[in-house]
Amino acid sequence: MKKIFSLFVFLLFAFGANAKEYKSVLLMNGTAHLGTGEVITHSLVGIRDGKIVLVANALITNPNKSEYDTVINIEGKHVYPGFIATDVTLGLIEIESVRATADFAEVGAYNPNVRAVVAYNTDSKVIPTVRSNGVLISQIVPRGGVLSGTSSIMRLQGWNWEDAALQNEDGVHMNWPRFFQNTGWWAEPGETKANDRYQERLDEMKKFFREAKAYAEVKEHERIDVRFEAMRGLFDGTKNLYIHASFVKEITDAVFFCRDLKITKIVIVGGYDSWMVAEMLKENKVSVILQRVHELPSRPEDDIDLPYKLPALLHKAGVLFCLGNEGDQEAHRTRNLPFLAGTACAYGLDKEIALMAVTLNAARILGVSDRIGSLAQGKEATLFVSEGDALDMRTNKVTMAWIQGKAVDLNDHQKELYKRFSDKYRK
Questions:
Q1: What does DSSP say about strands 83-88 and 135-140: parallel, antiparallel, or unpaired?
Q2: What distance in Å separates the CA atoms of residue 140 and residue 92, rounded to the nearest whole number?
């Protein structure tokens, strides 16, 4: 009996565990938002072997339903590509006030060799709450210092970080020095004054980057410098340089800094003033990951709704951008990403363009648009179905989701608590 039981367990894991990976699904009659600006009102979306194998109009195409294990009628519902959260510490921190649950920063100023991927916690209780709103991919980013480290792109499902990783290393993050320093705090702002050490910090960075560039020009070294090895990709165009900068002087200096070093793949992160220098960014092919739009203006003289209008201003100027979420409780607030896009809709951005800002545009900036970011044949089947408009918190209700063709469990800690106490008090 023990042998039979052991054989049964072996067969279960050998074949049953991978059943979802090979299962094929046909979603019929929903409204498909492709992530490219296009919408198909009576859609067919087919999934097989982890890929999207069909995206078509049900009024034109007559699919062979027998080719699919499961056919689901989603009439009246909406299907979207999985939302992509950029510039977050999701999976690197659990509770901000508990130091033992935070693993997003290293000691020292220059740490380009630090890899966020190895600190990623797939068992985080925060991740399921984020998936519940359709966020299925995230770019996890280290913090602190001048060069914080190397970010990674993760699927929000997997046993461990090796399973979850879509791309182990996508770029190096640099915190540009502030040209002005603010005093006080948000409720009682103090004097704003020039940073006396700005040029000194700039010279330090230039020296480090020049040494890294000289190191990269030699293919093999007797003594390996892990910091410079991590920066090779910046000079050969295989990695992005993410520069965290907000204001005009800082953004302009950062672009010229990269031009001098012949770094071609540049992304400004934050970019509060990016709309003011949009022509320069466009000319130099610089993308922007915008700061969280649910924020107060950075200057007292700015329009109160300027943060909400930034996406529309950049789109009008023709700058490639996506929406970020850096700030207080950013891991937990990642679940609000679609509603940041919804706010942008209310302030001048077309709804399908706003959707692109959290799907295809994000994938383009991260360099993975050939794999994710839109509903297109041949791409990974990372998508979800919502009963309503996914960008509107009043109607978004995700009922089904897949990551790389595998069904996602949409239960989470908050839903369990709601059920427990609603059952208790209903009685």
A1: parallel
A2: 8
Yes or no: say if 156 and 226 are a contact pair by the CB < 8 Å rule. Answer: no
- The separation between the first and the last C-alpha atoms of the chain, rounded to the nearest angstrom, is 45
Q: Which domains does the chain have, with CATH numbers?
A: 82-176+205-373 (3.20.20.140)
pTM of the shown model: 0.91
Token pair of 348, please?
Answer: 């001048």
Cβ-Cβ contacts under 8 Å for 282 (sequence gap 6 or more): 317, 318, 319
Report how far residue 349's alpha carbon sits from residue 310's, in angstroms, rounded to the nearest whole number. Answer: 10
- Are 3 and 50 in contact by the 8 Å Cβ rule? The answer is no
- Cβ–Cβ under 8 Å, residues 220 and 214: no
Are the C-beta atoms of 45 and 34 separated by less than 8 Å? no
Rounded Cα distance, 213 and 220, in Å: 14
Burial of 62 (C-beta count, 10 Å sphere; 0-12/13-18/19+): exposed
Question: Measured between alpha carbons, how far is 302 from 319 in angstroms, rounded to an integer?
Answer: 21
Cite the beta strand spans of 105-226 per DSSP E.
135-140, 147-155, 165-175, 180-185, 188-194
Q: Is 35 left (phi over 0), alpha (psi -120 to 50) or beta?
A: left
Tokens of 350: 């077309």
* DSSP 8-state secondary structure symbol assigned to residue 156: S
- Residue that is written with structure tokens 């299925």 in the block: 136
Strands, DSSP E only, in 178-303? 180-185, 188-194, 240-245, 266-270, 287-290
Mapped onto helix, strand or coil, the DSSP state of residue 272 is coil
Residue 181's CB is within 10 A of a number of other CB atoms, namely 15
Number of CB atoms found within 10 A of residue 333's CB: 21
**Strand, helix or coil for residue 91:** coil
The vertex-326 CA angle with 116 and 198, nearest 5°, equals 90
36-88 residue pLDDT tens? 999 999 999 999 999 999 999 988 988 889 899 999 999 999 999 999 999 99
CB 375 within 8 A of CB 56: no
Distance in angstroms (rounded) separating the CA atoms of residues 344 and 351: 8
Give the pLDDT confidence of 88-97 residue by residue, as tens digits: 999 999 888 8
What are the phi and psi torsion angles at 25 (to 5°)? Answer: -135, 140
